[in-house]
Amino acid sequence: MTEKNMHYGIQAKWYGFQKIGIYNGNTFELNNLDVLILKEQKCYSYHINTIAAHSEWIENGVETDSGEKRKEFHSVGYFEGKQRIIDTKLFNKDTGIYEGEPHDALVWPDTDADEKWKKELVFQMEEVHVQVRIRFIARGPKVAFCGHSFTGLWDSSYYYFRELAKMGGWNARVAYSYWGGTGIAHYAGLVEGCEERAEQCEKLINSNEYYDYFVVAGNSNEAVETYSGEIGAKDYKQRPRMLQGAKILHDKIHGKAGKMILWAPHAYQYGYLQSMAPKPWRPGMPGDVYDKNGDDYILTMTTEEMARVNAEWYLKMTETLGKDTEVLPVCLGYWELRKQYGLYVNPYLSPEEGGDYGHQNNIGNYIAACLLYAKVFEESPEGLGIPVSHTFGMPGGKVTQEQAEIIQQVSWNVYNNWKKTE
């Protein structure tokens, strides 16, 4: 834990004229702080409702602004048209498998009491004989996820992020919408016949008055499909509607979220076949022909190129939407690990495990969670552990300690390299 995060991103400052400032150096707001200031043998107490991200509360006597009072956060989950309810009694500890249905988006209920997360910080300003005590509950960022199978299979990246945050000292709160095959345009209500998916996203938005981060994932093929299906083609078919959808969602969360994150999804394991054909099932080079059931398909992108093109397009979308929108480059995290470690840290489900050379296992979920941890807390995930899995007894469910350590280090490097481009 960095020095900044040892103090939970909080600083106390002396401004003279008997004024104290409390600065929130986090990327998310802090809520419900009780401040006790001892100076000149007198005691002054304040309750602060909210300090916004990278903002400061300044003592000003009876007129001191205590910030907006937030309502209780609701950790809701929606799964393909229904509210997700997990019966914890159905987890078999012997097999490591949740025996309820489905096995995806297993964001295990958070039963931690506030008492566990109570903190007290003491700042001593010897030069002016002032002491500042701050008491608060380290609830951490409020995060919403609008995702699909590439984000929420198995234990889900949502759950892994929340658990990593706990390991880093914050009881982060998450809410989510999961619907397989649902991209940005779907969630924005631009795809005919998918109105329920847009309604589910709307429910997520309205489930809480405020999110520090609203994360929206596109489909992996959404940014790369072209009309012509030719190698190197730039006549992208879905991008205009995708950008329109991102704008719609951006407008919908205006005033209800601190930042919007566009999740740039991972590429398929062996690249992309023209015109959204089946996912390729072996390595190849652009122009290679793949035969399946008597039909021929041409490989138009390698895995590396698919990852790069997705990252570039997501960056362009954020440039259009504005500074309150950022990219989570999950696609680059996957590719960097594949480039450096090959199949040793393999985030893809094999066909024997029910995979299709595109969908991820829990290693993939862990990659995404580490990247998001780095972005939200501006701190390396190195040294954190592996969340308790409720699918570790299934094929593709387990993450080893050595794999976790590699993912933590590579994710931190990917995050820092990406920061230079944003």
Model description:
- This protein is of the alpha/beta class and 422 residues long.
- It folds into 2 domains: 87 residues, Sandwich (Immunoglobulin-like), CATH 2.60.40; 307 residues, SGNH hydrolase (Rossmann fold, 3-Layer(aba) Sandwich), CATH 3.40.50.
- Helices cover 27% and strands 24% of the residues.
- The protein has 10 helices and 19 strands.
- Strands 7-6-13-12-14-15-19 form a 7-stranded mixed beta sheet, sandwiched between helices. The protein has a 4-stranded antiparallel beta sheet with strand order 4-3-11-10, with no helix packed on it.
- Helix 3 packs across helix 9, helix 7 runs antiparallel to helix 8 and helix 9 crosses helix 10.
- The longest helix is centred in the last third of the chain and has 19 residues.
- The mean pLDDT is 95.
Structure keywords:
422 residues; alpha/beta; Immunoglobulin-like; Rossmann fold; 2 domains; 4-stranded antiparallel sheet; 10 helices
Task: Tell me the layout of helices and strands.
Elements: H1 3-6, E1 10-14, E2 20-24, E3 30-39, E4 42-51, E5 55-58, E6 77-79, E7 82-83, E8 91-92, E9 97-98, E10 118-125, E11 130-137, E12 142-147, H2 149-152, H3 157-167, E13 173-178, H4 184-187, H5 195-206, E14 211-217, H6 239-252, E15 257-263, E16 272-273, E17 289-292, E18 295-301, H7 303-321, E19 325-328, H8 330-341, H9 362-377, H10 401-419
Helix pairs in contact: 3-9, 7-8, 8-10, 9-10
